[in-house]
């Protein structure tokens, strides 16, 4: 504990700080944002070695601890590809200088220390991550139900008898219908942009 306090006092710890939107253009993560596709930073935590950049499309982790020497390793986790689970905040104790945001994206566990004085701001990203997790989970259920419905329809069609001359046209029609069904379902139930969620919870 004494070593930790001394390290924090000397500014040598890895406690992160929530960066103001006016300084987003000064961080390394900004260079990896897909501005051309209207990607936007909504929340950013910066520590001595790492940056955790939450955009409307993904979490971008500029990892300084996993890289060799002073190099940085940039990792991108798109929300729609990586389920968010186990979102938690651990508040600071009496002598702690930091609070902690914990969550899992895909199969990667994150534990981010943040200055205890920024707990109220940290609650905003906590709420946003919880909401995104709920939306993605519900959409995955609806997408699966849509696929099950298509399978039942295909089985029903398979039990019907058709004249030999009609088989090629029937196959073409079924194939086109199935493709359009799947395409529409994916367009409806796979959400990639969570701008509205961040605008609702993050006060930039």
Automatic annotation (TrEMBL):
Residues 10-132 form the Bacterial Pleckstrin homology domain. Pfam families: bPH_1, YvbH_ext. It comes from the Bacteria. Residues 146-204 form the YvbH-like oligomerisation domain. InterPro entries: PHb (IPR012544), PHb_sf (IPR037063), YvbH_oligomer_dom (IPR021722). Gene3D superfamilies: 1.10.287.210, Bacterial Pleckstrin homology domain. Signal peptide: none annotated. PANTHER family: HYPOTHETICAL CYTOSOLIC PROTEIN, YVBH-LIKE OLIGOMERISATION REGION. This is PH domain-containing protein.
């Amino acid at each position: 504990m004494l070593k930790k306090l001394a390290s924090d006092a000397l500014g040598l710890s890895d406690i992160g700080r929530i960066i103001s939107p006016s300084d987003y253009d000064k961080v390394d993560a900004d260079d990896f944002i897909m501005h051309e596709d209207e990607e936007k930073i909504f929340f950013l935590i910066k520590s001595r070695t790492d940056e955790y950049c939450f955009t409307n499309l993904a979490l971008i982790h500029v990892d300084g601890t996993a890289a060799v020497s002073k190099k940085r390793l940039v990792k991108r986790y798109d929300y729609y590809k990586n389920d968010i689970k186990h979102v938690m905040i651990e508040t600071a104790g009496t002598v702690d200088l930091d609070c902690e945001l914990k969550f899992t994206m895909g199969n990667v566990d994150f534990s981010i220390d943040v200055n205890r004085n920024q707990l109220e701001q940290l609650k905003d990203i906590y709420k946003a991550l919880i909401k995104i997790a709920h939306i993605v989970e519900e959409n995955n259920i609806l997408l699966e139900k849509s696929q099950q419905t298509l399978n039942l329809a295909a089985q029903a069609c398979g039990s019907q008898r058709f004249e030999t001359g009609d088989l090629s046209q029937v196959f073409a029609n079924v194939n086109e219908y199935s493709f359009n069904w799947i395409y529409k379902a994916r367009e409806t139930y796979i959400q990639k942009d969570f701008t509205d969620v961040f605008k609702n919870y993050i006060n930039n």
